Amino acid sequence: MLRDYLTEELQAAGLRPLWQGPPGDGWPASHARTRVVAVQRLSPAYRRVTLAGADLARFDAGGLHFRLLLGPAGADWPRTDGNGVTQWPGGAAAWHRPVYTIRHLDLTPPEPQLAFDVFVHAGGRVTDWTATLRPGTDVVLAGPGGDRGRVRRPGTALSATRPRCR
Q1: pLDDT-derived band of residue 77, with 50, 70 and 90 as boundaries?
Q2: Is the backbone peptide bond immediately before 110 cis, with ω within 30 degrees of 0?
Q3: What is the Cβ-side half-sphere exposure of residue 94, based on CA atoms within 13 angstroms?
Q4: Which neighbouring-strand residues pair with 65?
Q5: What are the beta bridge partners of residue 93?
Q6: How far apart are CA 140 and CA 142, in angstroms?
Q7: Is the pLDDT of residue 128 over 90?
Q8: What average pLDDT does the structure give for the chain?
Q9: Could you give the 3-state DSSP secondary structure of residue 9?
Q10: Longest Cα–Cα distance in the chain
């Protein structure tokens, strides 16, 4: 992601960076390939999406958040070019990349699973997406991000508190 940002800034200044180091396999290092296992209605206002995939194991190492990647209709997944810079089909601005919080992460074999909750509301792009989502659908996440280094132990829960205002 840093390489992508710096490349964009340098190109805007009329420079063409040439990065050193292996460009990778064409798949952005920050992207996790997954597939839908389940979509369930938790309440009239929330849906839970459960994903599975080997790439999810890295979410245990840090970060409680990720970006859901929703591209333009018919677009392929982002790939890296020979310089290691992410190429977004249709352009990066065409992709909806909302941030979500991991609600559940299970690393038990045969495959890691991750669950997140979606607030259901009229006109929501992710709401509309989850309404037609089916098991087996490919999904790509960017992350993890945020709260690196927080100690998480089995049986602990995340709590959200509202600050007191006077």
Answers
A1: very high
A2: yes
A3: 13
A4: 101, 145
A5: none
A6: 7
A7: yes
A8: 85
A9: helix
A10: 55
Count Cα neighbours of 87 within 13 Å in the Cβ-side half-sphere.
12
Question: By the 8 A CB rule, do 36 and 47 touch?
Answer: no
Tokens of 19: 């990065």
Is the confidence at residue 32, as pLDDT, over 90?
yes
Q: Residue 117 forms beta bridges with which residues? A: 48
- Name, in order, each residue with C-beta under 8 angstroms of 17's C-beta and a sequence gap of 6 or more: 6, 7, 10, 11, 83
Cis check for the bond before 44: say yes or no (omega within 30 of 0): no
More confident of the two residues 11 and 160:
11
Q: Are 120 and 74 in contact (CB under 8 A)?
A: no
Helix (H) or strand (E) run with residue 108 in it? none
Q: pTM for the complete prediction?
A: 0.78
Is residue 88 scored above 60 in pLDDT?
A: yes
Angle ∠(120,122,124) on CA atoms, nearest 5: 70
Q: What average pLDDT does range 108-121 have in this prediction?
A: 95
CA 102, 55, 91, 15 torsion-angle sign: positive
47-70 as b/e, with b when 16 or more CB fall inside 10 Å? bbbbbbbebbeebeeebbbbbbbb
Query: Which is it for strands 86-87 and 79-80: parallel, antiparallel or unpaired?
Result: antiparallel
